[in-house]
Amino acid sequence: MKKKGLAAALFISFLFAVFVSFFVLGKGIDNLRSGIIGGLVIIYLVFILFMILYTGNVYKWRKIFFTSYAVAFVIDFVWWTMGDRGHMWLLDSEILYSQAPMCHIVVPMLILPLIFTKEVIFPAAFSSVSFMILLTVVFTIIFGRSFCSWGCFFGGQDELFSSIPSSKRWSINRLHPFIKYFPFAMLAFIVLHSFITMSPTYCFWFCPFKTTSEFIEINSFTRVIQTFIFVSLWAILVILLPILSKKRIQCSFFCPMGAFLSCSSKINLFGISIDKNKCNNCKRCITICPNFAITEESLSKGKVLITCTKCGACLNVCTKNAITLGIRGVKHIYETIEDTSAKSGFWKMFGRDLWDPAVVFIFGIFTIAAIMSSENFINSISRLLKYFIGV
Amino acid sequence: MENKKTKYSSIINRTLMIVSIVLVLFVIPLVFINAKIFEEFLISSGIKNSPNLKDGYLIAEFNDPAGDILLQLPHVTIYDNARNTLDIRNFSVKKVAFNSLSGVGIDARLNVCIEFDGKQPNPFDFKNGFSFPVIHFYLKTPGTQKTQIMSDKAANVNFDEGGWNYQVIIDGMHEQARVFDNTGKFLFNGLGLYVKFEYEKGYKGKQNHITKTIITAGLPLELIGDPVYGKWKYYIVTGLLDVKNPSMLYQPREDSSNVFDYVTSDSSSRFEIDSSRRVSLSPLVVNNSDF
Questions:
Q1: Which of A31, A190, A285, B38 has the fewest CB atoms in 10 Å of its CB?
Q2: Do B35 and A114 touch (CB under 8 A)?
């Protein structure tokens, strides 16, 4: 994405601040302390959006937000379980009474039971389940798989560890077809098995992120095996392999929600397009893409694969500006307008900066991500301040 | 021709751009704000949570008045603020089905729920979150021989008739309810013992003080039988004594009284306690023969 002018960046950031304040502060500020923390969080989020627009570096500033969101989520959630409740166990009673915290990864597992039996098989409160389904539907239709790089509070862990090393130790740019289709096979298995057993299979057996959130009370040998499996998967898929490869291995290959959202990538409004005429085939985009969404074959066709999460890595690495984020099926809408108004005055420049699908995309998705993350940011900062400074 | 194509393409571009702006600026916020409508739509479509313990089939429910505790608590520090712990306010029996914790199939159980006012104190820091009371729950299922007589020293009661075949004891120490037969022989443990606190909702939904304590004990339906069929009788008392597993909780009085509160049906009259003899109680009768 091309960098925006100061006026446009400030205007959009202001609009965003109004939007987010409405939702964040509207939830209720109990006292001056939480008001100040809420205000600081809004300033942080506005600053991130401003920097994305003003510098045009979507990948860098999105990554800062996304990884900090993941850290804030872990601090907030684990502190709640360990500090307030005394343990990280999801108790049998909470499962039996449908009081488990809801998570978006569950959504694909709910589909078949919902259609055929009209039952929600995840043991969470009905309101949480319905909201998560709604969120997924809205996200999917409008933004496709972008949730994986903007709104997923678990995906940030994968990205955090993949960002730690300065260089790759293990280069895996080309995938064997079996590996390429593994996430979809995994999705099919999880969805079918969940339907047959009428229980969320991935949550009971495979979810690596239970290690940093909440896991089922270990009160039987089966639970010991389950715990061993998900802790091992977390160590391998979320820490070890991302560090070695600088790729988001868990998100790319093992997450059923990721594969599920990939299937919808053809129908959503926004997408990445590659201009073959501008591309000099340097293949930097293939190397940097953390989700294996650009291959040599797809590059030669001027397309990205459906696994693209619109993280912005390819946008910023392309020196020829051949890769653009725009409205799917519409070529170079931004450039068409730019060509006709490039040498215009302030207001036309301002209008050109706003009349960009990438800006609409970033504004929309970042607003949702900001609303979702704000509570975790506020709670984690609040807890840290209380613990270390006593304020 | 080329001009027409460019013009046509430009119209599509602008239309899609306007659509995307409308979606982002108006539709998404409206979706968030009106999420409740979607929830109501799902409910109206017949979608519900998988069977869980909340949605049990209510077999019987009896309310009990506040402040009808029969005995005075001993004047010992640990019993301070413990009066509510012995005063039953509501007793209900539910048949519940739920998705098995093993992840395969549906399990069923009989849930016995006893409700008290306020928070149960836990001076002994028992695992279940309450130190008092010891709850005695008696059950008479259809088809039991009437020659069997049951009286209980712990509760110091006689029953109006014989044939009571299960005694269930619930306390704060044991992880499960314990089920005994009419001779006092231990039969099996229950399935889960849960203590739930209900809070008064304060400003902006904040939880204020605890208004209710609900103790729920699960019993295996396959062993107890299915309470939706036939005439079942229930009888429930609270006390401080568990003679099946004597503890230091309560030193029995000379008159051996241990019934601090009991649940009675509306039709039966209240009795006056008489320390010279055992108490005779009328059971709670639930006739489900119509099922």
A1: A31
A2: no
